[in-house]
Specification:
Blueprint lengths: L1 H16 L11 E6 L1 H5 L2 H13 L2 E6 L2 H9 L5 E4 L2 H9 L3 E16 L13 H11 L3 E3 L5 H12 L9 E3 L4 H11 L3 E4 H8 L6 E4 L6 E9 L9 H12 L1 H9 L2 H4 L5 E2 L2 H5 L1
Parallel strand pairs: 1-2, 1-3, 5-6
Antiparallel strand pairs: 3-9, 4-7, 4-8, 4-9, 4-10
Helix pairs in contact: 6-7
Amino acid sequence: MRIRLALSLFVLLLVGCVAPPPPQAAAPHLLLATTTSTRDSGLLDFLLPDFEKTHGVFVDVVAVGTGQALKLGEDGNADVLLVHARAKEDDFMAAGHGVRREDVMYNDFVIVGPSADPAGIADGADAAQAFAKIAESQSPFVSRGDDSGTHSKEKAIWQAASIEPAGDWYISAGQGMGAVLTMADEQQAYTLSDRATYLARTLEGTRLVILVEGDSLLFNPYGVIAVNPAKSAKINGALADQFIDWLISVPTQEKIAQFGVAEFSQPLFTPDSQLWRER
Protein backbone atom coordinates (compact mmCIF):
# COMPACT_ATOMS: atom_id res chain seq x y z
CA MET A 1 0.00 0.00 0.00
CA ARG A 2 2.81 2.40 0.92
CA ILE A 3 4.65 1.59 -2.34
CA ARG A 4 1.46 2.18 -4.39
CA LEU A 5 0.82 5.48 -2.56
CA ALA A 6 4.40 6.60 -3.15
CA LEU A 7 4.17 5.77 -6.84
CA SER A 8 0.92 7.70 -7.09
CA LEU A 9 2.47 10.76 -5.44
CA PHE A 10 5.49 10.50 -7.76
CA VAL A 11 3.26 10.42 -10.85
CA LEU A 12 1.29 13.44 -9.64
CA LEU A 13 4.48 15.39 -9.00
CA LEU A 14 5.81 14.41 -12.41
CA VAL A 15 2.62 15.49 -14.16
CA GLY A 16 2.72 18.78 -12.28
CA CYS A 17 6.24 19.42 -13.60
CA VAL A 18 5.20 19.00 -17.24
CA ALA A 19 4.50 22.33 -18.90
CA PRO A 20 0.96 22.71 -20.28
CA PRO A 21 0.67 22.77 -24.08
CA PRO A 22 0.94 26.26 -25.58
CA PRO A 23 -2.40 27.88 -26.37
CA GLN A 24 -3.44 27.64 -29.99
CA ALA A 25 -3.40 30.86 -31.95
CA ALA A 26 -6.87 32.21 -32.62
CA ALA A 27 -8.08 31.99 -36.22
CA PRO A 28 -7.66 35.30 -38.05
CA HIS A 29 -10.69 37.46 -38.83
CA LEU A 30 -11.42 39.19 -42.12
CA LEU A 31 -13.76 42.18 -42.02
CA LEU A 32 -15.87 42.29 -45.18
CA ALA A 33 -17.98 45.40 -45.79
CA THR A 34 -20.57 44.65 -48.43
CA THR A 35 -23.99 45.51 -49.75
CA THR A 36 -27.25 44.31 -48.27
CA SER A 37 -28.07 42.54 -51.55
CA THR A 38 -25.27 40.00 -51.14
CA ARG A 39 -26.58 39.22 -47.66
CA ASP A 40 -30.33 39.40 -48.30
CA SER A 41 -30.10 37.24 -51.42
CA GLY A 42 -28.38 34.51 -49.40
CA LEU A 43 -25.21 34.58 -51.52
CA LEU A 44 -22.84 35.13 -48.59
CA ASP A 45 -24.29 32.22 -46.63
CA PHE A 46 -23.79 30.09 -49.74
CA LEU A 47 -20.18 31.11 -50.44
CA LEU A 48 -18.36 32.13 -47.27
CA PRO A 49 -18.35 28.84 -45.31
CA ASP A 50 -16.14 27.36 -48.05
CA PHE A 51 -13.56 30.15 -47.67
CA GLU A 52 -13.65 29.98 -43.87
CA LYS A 53 -13.20 26.22 -43.78
CA THR A 54 -10.53 26.04 -46.48
CA HIS A 55 -8.43 28.91 -45.15
CA GLY A 56 -9.08 28.67 -41.41
CA VAL A 57 -10.50 32.19 -41.29
CA PHE A 58 -13.55 33.85 -39.76
CA VAL A 59 -15.26 36.37 -42.04
CA ASP A 60 -17.04 39.15 -40.17
CA VAL A 61 -19.66 40.70 -42.46
CA VAL A 62 -20.95 44.26 -42.26
CA ALA A 63 -23.85 44.56 -44.73
CA VAL A 64 -24.72 48.19 -45.50
CA GLY A 65 -25.29 50.34 -48.55
CA THR A 66 -22.38 50.60 -50.98
CA GLY A 67 -21.77 54.23 -50.00
CA GLN A 68 -21.46 53.24 -46.35
CA ALA A 69 -19.25 50.26 -47.23
CA LEU A 70 -16.90 52.52 -49.18
CA LYS A 71 -16.83 54.95 -46.24
CA LEU A 72 -15.84 52.11 -43.92
CA GLY A 73 -12.98 51.37 -46.27
CA GLU A 74 -11.99 55.01 -46.56
CA ASP A 75 -11.83 55.24 -42.76
CA GLY A 76 -9.75 52.07 -42.50
CA ASN A 77 -12.52 50.11 -40.79
CA ALA A 78 -12.68 47.16 -43.20
CA ASP A 79 -10.22 44.84 -44.87
CA VAL A 80 -12.08 44.22 -48.10
CA LEU A 81 -15.22 45.52 -49.85
CA LEU A 82 -17.77 43.80 -52.10
CA VAL A 83 -19.88 46.54 -53.66
CA HIS A 84 -21.86 47.56 -56.76
CA ALA A 85 -21.49 51.19 -57.79
CA ARG A 86 -18.77 51.27 -60.44
CA ALA A 87 -18.34 55.05 -60.65
CA LYS A 88 -17.93 55.29 -56.88
CA GLU A 89 -15.56 52.32 -56.89
CA ASP A 90 -13.38 54.02 -59.51
CA ASP A 91 -13.34 57.23 -57.44
CA PHE A 92 -12.37 55.18 -54.37
CA MET A 93 -9.43 53.65 -56.20
CA ALA A 94 -8.34 56.94 -57.77
CA ALA A 95 -8.24 58.53 -54.31
CA GLY A 96 -5.85 55.81 -53.10
CA HIS A 97 -8.29 54.28 -50.63
CA GLY A 98 -8.00 50.87 -52.32
CA VAL A 99 -5.00 48.99 -53.67
CA ARG A 100 -6.73 46.37 -55.82
CA ARG A 101 -10.10 46.08 -57.55
CA GLU A 102 -11.43 43.07 -59.45
CA ASP A 103 -14.67 42.35 -61.31
CA VAL A 104 -16.67 39.62 -59.58
CA MET A 105 -20.15 39.18 -61.05
CA TYR A 106 -23.22 40.99 -62.28
CA ASN A 107 -26.97 40.79 -62.36
CA ASP A 108 -29.58 43.44 -63.09
CA PHE A 109 -32.06 45.75 -61.44
CA VAL A 110 -35.80 45.39 -61.91
CA ILE A 111 -38.68 47.73 -61.21
CA VAL A 112 -41.23 45.91 -59.09
CA GLY A 113 -44.65 46.90 -57.83
CA PRO A 114 -48.21 45.77 -57.18
CA SER A 115 -49.85 43.55 -59.76
CA ALA A 116 -52.64 46.14 -60.10
CA ASP A 117 -49.97 48.48 -61.54
CA PRO A 118 -51.75 51.84 -60.99
CA ALA A 119 -49.04 53.73 -62.93
CA GLY A 120 -49.42 51.48 -65.98
CA ILE A 121 -45.74 50.59 -66.41
CA ALA A 122 -46.10 46.83 -66.95
CA ASP A 123 -44.19 45.08 -69.74
CA GLY A 124 -42.04 48.10 -70.44
CA ALA A 125 -38.30 48.05 -71.05
CA ASP A 126 -37.62 51.76 -70.55
CA ALA A 127 -36.75 52.44 -66.92
CA ALA A 128 -36.81 56.24 -67.20
CA GLN A 129 -40.21 56.19 -68.88
CA ALA A 130 -41.54 53.92 -66.13
CA PHE A 131 -40.29 56.29 -63.44
CA ALA A 132 -41.91 59.21 -65.27
CA LYS A 133 -45.27 57.40 -65.24
CA ILE A 134 -44.92 56.62 -61.53
CA ALA A 135 -44.21 60.29 -60.77
CA GLU A 136 -47.01 61.52 -63.02
CA SER A 137 -49.56 59.25 -61.34
CA GLN A 138 -48.02 59.95 -57.92
CA SER A 139 -48.17 56.25 -57.16
CA PRO A 140 -46.30 55.28 -53.98
CA PHE A 141 -42.60 54.61 -54.54
CA VAL A 142 -40.23 53.41 -51.80
CA SER A 143 -36.62 54.53 -52.24
CA ARG A 144 -33.64 52.97 -50.49
CA GLY A 145 -32.54 56.50 -49.57
CA ASP A 146 -29.30 55.16 -48.12
CA ASP A 147 -26.52 56.05 -50.59
CA SER A 148 -26.35 52.40 -51.64
CA GLY A 149 -25.53 51.14 -55.11
CA THR A 150 -29.25 50.60 -55.68
CA HIS A 151 -30.01 54.13 -54.51
CA SER A 152 -27.32 55.51 -56.84
CA LYS A 153 -28.89 53.61 -59.74
CA GLU A 154 -32.34 54.88 -58.80
CA LYS A 155 -31.09 58.48 -58.82
CA ALA A 156 -29.52 57.92 -62.24
CA ILE A 157 -32.88 56.73 -63.59
CA TRP A 158 -34.70 59.77 -62.16
CA GLN A 159 -32.03 61.96 -63.77
CA ALA A 160 -32.55 60.19 -67.10
CA ALA A 161 -36.26 60.94 -66.74
CA SER A 162 -35.46 64.62 -65.93
CA ILE A 163 -37.42 64.32 -62.68
CA GLU A 164 -36.55 65.33 -59.11
CA PRO A 165 -38.89 63.09 -57.10
CA ALA A 166 -40.70 64.78 -54.22
CA GLY A 167 -44.02 64.57 -52.45
CA ASP A 168 -45.96 62.27 -50.16
CA TRP A 169 -45.89 59.52 -52.80
CA TYR A 170 -42.08 59.33 -52.68
CA ILE A 171 -40.93 57.51 -49.54
CA SER A 172 -37.24 57.59 -48.59
CA ALA A 173 -36.73 54.59 -46.32
CA GLY A 174 -33.04 54.73 -45.42
CA GLN A 175 -33.12 50.92 -45.25
CA GLY A 176 -31.54 47.90 -46.91
CA MET A 177 -33.04 46.11 -49.89
CA GLY A 178 -34.86 43.42 -47.95
CA ALA A 179 -36.53 45.95 -45.65
CA VAL A 180 -37.49 48.19 -48.60
CA LEU A 181 -39.11 45.29 -50.43
CA THR A 182 -41.08 44.49 -47.28
CA MET A 183 -42.22 48.14 -47.02
CA ALA A 184 -43.17 48.28 -50.69
CA ASP A 185 -45.12 45.04 -50.36
CA GLU A 186 -47.00 46.28 -47.30
CA GLN A 187 -47.87 49.59 -48.97
CA GLN A 188 -48.37 48.09 -52.44
CA ALA A 189 -45.81 50.54 -53.75
CA TYR A 190 -43.21 50.50 -56.49
CA THR A 191 -39.48 50.20 -55.89
CA LEU A 192 -36.20 49.42 -57.62
CA SER A 193 -34.56 46.16 -56.58
CA ASP A 194 -31.66 44.01 -57.60
CA ARG A 195 -33.09 40.86 -59.13
CA ALA A 196 -31.39 38.50 -56.67
CA THR A 197 -32.89 40.01 -53.51
CA TYR A 198 -36.31 40.29 -55.13
CA LEU A 199 -36.31 36.62 -56.14
CA ALA A 200 -35.14 35.59 -52.68
CA ARG A 201 -38.10 37.52 -51.24
CA THR A 202 -40.55 35.64 -53.46
CA LEU A 203 -39.75 32.58 -51.35
CA GLU A 204 -41.06 34.55 -48.36
CA GLY A 205 -44.35 35.40 -50.05
CA THR A 206 -43.92 38.91 -51.44
CA ARG A 207 -46.85 40.01 -53.59
CA LEU A 208 -44.75 42.41 -55.66
CA VAL A 209 -44.19 41.50 -59.31
CA ILE A 210 -41.55 42.47 -61.86
CA LEU A 211 -43.01 45.13 -64.13
CA VAL A 212 -39.99 46.55 -65.96
CA GLU A 213 -36.75 44.78 -66.87
CA GLY A 214 -34.21 44.53 -69.66
CA ASP A 215 -33.14 48.18 -70.00
CA SER A 216 -29.35 48.50 -70.37
CA LEU A 217 -29.54 51.21 -67.71
CA LEU A 218 -30.48 48.46 -65.23
CA PHE A 219 -27.16 46.58 -65.55
CA ASN A 220 -25.69 45.87 -62.09
CA PRO A 221 -21.98 44.89 -61.86
CA TYR A 222 -20.22 43.98 -58.59
CA GLY A 223 -16.56 44.53 -57.71
CA VAL A 224 -14.27 43.49 -54.85
CA ILE A 225 -11.71 45.94 -53.45
CA ALA A 226 -8.77 45.48 -51.09
CA VAL A 227 -8.58 48.47 -48.74
CA ASN A 228 -5.24 50.28 -48.61
CA PRO A 229 -3.37 48.86 -45.55
CA ALA A 230 -1.85 52.31 -45.00
CA LYS A 231 -5.28 53.36 -43.71
CA SER A 232 -4.89 51.45 -40.47
CA ALA A 233 -2.57 49.02 -38.74
CA LYS A 234 -5.65 46.83 -38.17
CA ILE A 235 -6.09 46.12 -41.89
CA ASN A 236 -4.97 42.66 -42.94
CA GLY A 237 -3.85 43.30 -46.50
CA ALA A 238 -2.48 39.79 -47.05
CA LEU A 239 -5.75 38.19 -45.97
CA ALA A 240 -7.74 40.62 -48.15
CA ASP A 241 -5.66 39.57 -51.16
CA GLN A 242 -6.20 35.92 -50.28
CA PHE A 243 -9.96 36.49 -50.15
CA ILE A 244 -9.97 38.28 -53.51
CA ASP A 245 -7.91 35.52 -55.12
CA TRP A 246 -10.44 32.98 -53.82
CA LEU A 247 -13.50 35.02 -54.88
CA ILE A 248 -12.35 35.53 -58.47
CA SER A 249 -11.02 31.98 -58.89
CA VAL A 250 -12.77 29.72 -61.37
CA PRO A 251 -14.05 27.24 -58.72
CA THR A 252 -15.71 30.04 -56.71
CA GLN A 253 -17.04 31.66 -59.86
CA GLU A 254 -18.58 28.31 -60.75
CA LYS A 255 -20.32 28.29 -57.35
CA ILE A 256 -21.67 31.79 -58.06
CA ALA A 257 -23.03 30.50 -61.38
CA GLN A 258 -24.89 27.74 -59.49
CA PHE A 259 -26.43 29.96 -56.82
CA GLY A 260 -30.20 30.13 -57.20
CA VAL A 261 -30.51 27.63 -60.05
CA ALA A 262 -32.17 24.95 -57.92
CA GLU A 263 -34.79 27.37 -56.56
CA PHE A 264 -35.40 29.64 -59.56
CA SER A 265 -34.08 27.71 -62.58
CA GLN A 266 -31.68 30.58 -63.18
CA PRO A 267 -28.56 31.91 -61.41
CA LEU A 268 -29.11 35.00 -59.29
CA PHE A 269 -25.69 36.35 -60.27
CA THR A 270 -23.55 35.86 -63.38
CA PRO A 271 -19.83 35.29 -62.71
CA ASP A 272 -17.62 37.89 -64.39
CA SER A 273 -14.05 37.77 -63.06
CA GLN A 274 -11.21 38.05 -65.57
CA LEU A 275 -10.15 34.50 -64.74
CA TRP A 276 -13.70 33.30 -65.44
CA ARG A 277 -13.86 35.16 -68.76
CA GLU A 278 -10.49 33.76 -69.82
CA ARG A 279 -11.09 30.16 -68.76
